[in-house]
Structures are given as structure tokens and as C-alpha cells.
């Protein structure tokens, strides 16, 4: 960003100096051809300097681009990096021009309490599948906790819009079938970027259809309700990470690598660091 501002400032300064030189040339051309010649030489030098700077800048950018391309595929966890980056760029563009603006409107229009209620509702529905996965992983205490959360929030919490369970000391967990497979000893496999869904692994990709089937709202409702609820859930989740997204864009030198490494580390921690 600083380089762009600096480069833009140089271009503006060069344009202004060229305009001044031309004005002086017009003013004194009738008085001294010698001074006019000097001004012309100065302009040529300035133009040559600008051209050299442009060549240096272009060469530097080319070297940087070649360095990035050379590093593609060097991570053993990401042998499909070239293909993954194509999908990542597609998802990033879709997010930039569709999901992110929609989430910003959603966040600015809806009161915070309404956003909290919507997030709680979808979280309560997700606790059903979380409870099932914790039981399958052998975490019986967590599974019972998650099932009790659903009971409390669905009744006292008015269908899940109020998170009574957390206030009552029942912590929220997150578990999916990809984690369950990991607990069963299935290796994660290579890193994969899925269209629309984003970061994943081969194991998690195989588990994704099972997660959709196990999702109460996705599998037990009509097509219209399912599509509406899925769209609203995506928008609500995107709105909840708007600030984190800005932080990544500002801090990450390579957004793709940042998200990939963070995802793999998080997934390994969710299962067991020794399993992957």
C-alpha cells in the first residue's frame, strides 16, 4: 500500500514538474533559444529517469511474481496448491462482490439483538448434530451436555433464539463428521479448497455430505425453507467474521497461505495434534 502511495506521489510530482517546464519554455522561448534547449535537455533527463524507474519497478514486480509462482506446490500438505489457488481466487471474488457486501448490509440494517437471536437459532439447530458426533467420538459427557443445551434452548430459550444453556453453565461445543473420522483414525489427506465452501481437506470433503444430511434444518425441511435458511445462515456467519476478515486482509502477506495454515492447525487441534 505504501509503495502504491509513494509511486503515485512520484507520478504526480513528475507530471507537475513537466507542466512547469513547459510553461517556462513557452514564456522564454522568444528570449533565449539557449535556455529553451536547456529546458528540453532537462525534460529528456527527467523522462529518462522516469522510464528507468518504471523499468526497475516492472522488473521488481516480475521477480516477486516469479517468487510466488516458484513456491507453489512446495508444501507437502498442499500438493494441489495451483488448483486450490484458482478455486480460492474464485471464492474470494465471490465474497468480495456478493457475500461481503450482503453481510455488511445485513449487519448495518439488523439490530444487534436480532443478529444474536438469528445466530443463536442456527447454533441451537447445529447442537443436535454436534451432540451426535460427540457421542460417536466417545465424548459421552460432551454429547449429553450438547443434548441438554438443545432441550434448554429449544424450550426456555424460545426455540433457540436465546442461549439459556450457556448462561446455565453448559458450554457450547463444535463437532462435525470430519472430526469424528479423525478421531476414528482417518488421516486428513491433502488440503483442498472447495467452491463456495472454502478450506477443507480430503477427509473433511468426504465428510461434508454426511454433515449436510445430519444438519436438522438442511435435511428435515422443505426445499424453500432449506434454501432460505441456508442463505440466511451463510450471511449471518459472514457478518460475524467481518472484522476478522479485515484483519486478515491487512496483516496477511499471502491470504491463501494464512487461511490454509490457520485451518490446518485449527483442525488438528480440534481432533488431536498427534493424529495428523
UniProtKB/TrEMBL annotation:
Pfam families: MlaA
Descriptive protein name: VacJ family lipoprotein
Entry keyword Manganese: no
InterPro entries: MlaA
Keywords, sorted A to Z: Lipoprotein, Membrane, Signal, Transmembrane, Transmembrane helix
CC per GO annotation: membrane
Family membership: Belongs to the MlaA family.
Species whose genome carries this gene: Undibacterium piscinae
GO process terms (BP): intermembrane phospholipid transfer
TM segment ranges: 21-44
Amino acid at each position: 500500500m505504501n509503495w502504491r502511495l509513494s509511486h503515485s506521489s512520484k507520478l504526480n510530482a513528475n507530471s507537475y514538474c513537466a507542466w512547469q517546464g513547459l510553461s517556462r519554455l513557452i514564456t522564454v522561448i522568444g528570449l533565449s533559444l539557449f535556455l529553451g534547449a536547456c529546458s528540453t535537455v532537462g525534460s529528456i533527463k527527467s523522462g529518462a529517469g522516469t522510464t528507468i524507474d518504471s523499468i526497475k519497478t516492472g522488473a521488481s514486480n516480475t521477480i516477486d511474481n516469479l517468487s510466488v509462482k516458484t513456491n507453489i506446490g512446495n508444501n507437502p500438505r498442499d500438493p494441489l496448491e495451483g488448483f486450490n489457488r484458482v478455486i480460492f481466487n474464485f471464492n474470494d471474488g465471490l465474497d468480495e462482490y456478493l457475500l461481503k457486501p450482503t453481510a455488511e448490509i445485513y449487519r448495518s440494517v439488523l439490530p444487534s439483538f436480532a443478529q444474536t437471536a438469528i445466530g443463536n437459532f442456527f447454533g441451537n439447530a447445529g447442537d443436535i448434530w454436534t451432540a451426535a458426533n460427540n457421542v460417536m467420538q466417545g465424548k459421552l459427557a460432551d454429547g449429553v451436555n450438547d443434548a441438554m443445551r438443545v432441550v434448554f434452548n429449544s424450550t426456555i430459550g424460545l426455540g433457540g433464539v436465546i442461549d439459556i444453556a450457556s448462561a446455565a453453565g453448559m458450554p457450547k461445543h463444535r463437532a462435525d463428521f470430519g472430526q469424528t473420522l479423525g478421531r476414528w483414525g482417518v488421516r486428513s489427506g491433502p488440503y483442498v479448497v472447495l467452491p463456495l465452501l472454502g478450506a477443507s481437506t480430503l477427509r473433511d470433503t468426504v465428510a461434508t455430505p454426511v454433515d449436510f444430511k445430519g444438519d436438522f434444518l438442511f435435511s428435515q425441511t422443505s426445499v424453500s425453507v432449506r434454501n432460505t435458511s441456508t442463505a440466511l445462515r451463510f450471511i449471518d456467519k459472514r457478518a460475524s467474521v467481518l472484522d476478522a476478515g479485515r484483519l486478515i486482509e491487512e496483516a496477511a502477506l499471502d491470504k491463501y497461505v494464512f487461511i490454509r495454515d490457520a485451518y490446518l492447525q485449527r483442525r488438528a487441534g480440534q481432533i488431536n495434534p498427534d493424529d495428523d
